[in-house]
Amino acid sequence: DLLRLCLISKSACLPRLVQLSHLHTSPNSQAPVPALPEKGGKTRHGIIPEEIFQLLYPKTGVTGPYMLGAGLLTYILSKEIYIINHETFAAACMGTVIIYGVRKFGPDVAAFADKLNEEKVQKAQEVKDLAMTSLAQAVLDEKKEQWRAEGRQMLFDAKRNNVAMLLETNRRERVHMVTNEVKKRLDYQIALQTLHRRMEQEHMVNWVEKNVVTSITPQQEKTSIAKCITDLKVLAKVQQAKATV
Amino acid sequence: MTLSFFDQFMSPTYLGIPLIAVALTLPWILFPTPSARWLNNRLITLQGWFINRFTQQLLLPLNLGGHKWAALLTSLMLFLITLNMLGLLPYTFTPTTQLSLNMGLAVPLWLATVIIGMRNQPTAALGHLLPEGTPVPLIPVLIIIETISLFIRPALGVRLTANLTAGHQLIATAAFVLLPMMPTVAILTSIVLFLLTLLEIAVAMIQAYVFVLLLSLYLQENV
């Protein structure tokens, strides 16, 4: 606070004054402060405390304090303890203005002061509420994470299955490849064998042909040609006979 | 205990003890010390709010050097407002009607602003004596006029004294005239008195504010 700052700085540079830093040093000043009352003391007609009326009620009843007030006023005026002079009128005027001002603007000012305090409380309350909601949210999130963590076995199984499938696929691919390679080798062997057989066959056929051709003597050739001619003549005769028939 | 017109302006003494000291220091008890609580009662809340707002508004046009004067100006304002408003109550003495008090406040503070200006930025402080854009032939005359204006600034105190004294005196006169009057005419006079009362309340607050405002203005020029 500004005033406190001035006082403290003053105490630093003027040591001959009261050492203000020696005040409020005992632990008594740190004791918890009792709560403030909600409302101020009850008053009647704005100024006179209700307690006076309660005090006088047993002896003088309800009108007691009023009689006291009126009697006091009369006494003061008649004994000229208080003289009515120009200040009285000025006081009456000023009193009217003050009472009017307080009655008219009092509740508004009080509401304003209450609003200032209320805003202070509300700001702190907002912080507190925000902290509470965020913490509650954090608790929910944590619970969700714990629930999620429970399913970790399923996750591991799925992953394990995945890996097993991959391995199986790989194995089958390799088996397939091996089969293909073996088949290729065997096909080669078969092709080789057929080639061999064909070549042998061709060779043999060639050899037989060659031998047959070389074994045909010129005698055989003549006899065969003569036979062919006679066969042809017979055939021609038959044909001529068929044609004339 | 008859009162004359000017009794209200006599500096009160009792058995040789100048009671003006009491009149100057007792109003302090009307301002409760802010407590160590977080939420206070209405009086302390309003007081704190008012002081904060006032200081903030007052320090807006001042640069950082002028902020050193914050405590002084705010406490001066509270002091003057309290003295003025309490003086409106009947049978009270208003210390601010004494020229000695007001000049005692105004002259040192004004002189402080002048000396600060002359020490820290003498060129700018002297430059204030000649407003911008004056035609050349007018310069000598204007410098003299501005110097006179500078030295008449302690009239801050005279202004406060005059306003308050006049107001109180008017109320006293109107009330005095009201005393032996016939009721029909008295009604008019009481209306006058009522209006004067309202005016006085306003003047009490305004004059205190003007005092502090002008001081801050002088500070703004020089700091």
**Using DSSP, what is the number of strands of chain B?**
2
Instruction: State the shape of chain B.
Output: globular
The structural domain count of chain B equals: 1
The radius of gyration of chain A is 68 Å
Order of adjacent strands in the largest pleated sheet of chain A: 1-2
Overall average residue pLDDT of chain A: 89
Query: How many helices of chain A in DSSP terms?
Result: 6
Strand residue percentage of chain B = under 5%
Radius of gyration of chain B: 21 Å
C-alpha end-to-end distance of chain B: 52 Å
Q: Beta-strand level of the residues of chain A, as a percent range?
A: under 5%
Helix/strand structural class of chain A: mainly alpha
Residue share in helix of chain A: over 70%
> Helices and strands of chain B: which structural class?
mainly alpha
The major β-sheet of chain A equals: 2 strands, antiparallel
| Unreliable sequence segments of chain B | none
Q: CA-to-CA gap between the ends of chain A?
A: 158 Å
Helicity of chain B, in percent?
55-70%
Output the number of helix runs of chain B. 8
Q: Which residues of chain A form runs of ≥5 with pLDDT under 50? A: none
Give the total of beta strands of chain A. Answer: 2
GO molecular function, one term (chain A): proton-transporting ATP synthase activity, rotational mechanism
Organism (chain A): Oncorhynchus mykiss (Rainbow trout)
Protein name (chain A): ATP synthase subunit b
Keywords (chain A): Acetylation, CF(0), Hydrogen ion transport, Ion transport, Membrane, Mitochondrion, Mitochondrion inner membrane, Transit peptide, Transport
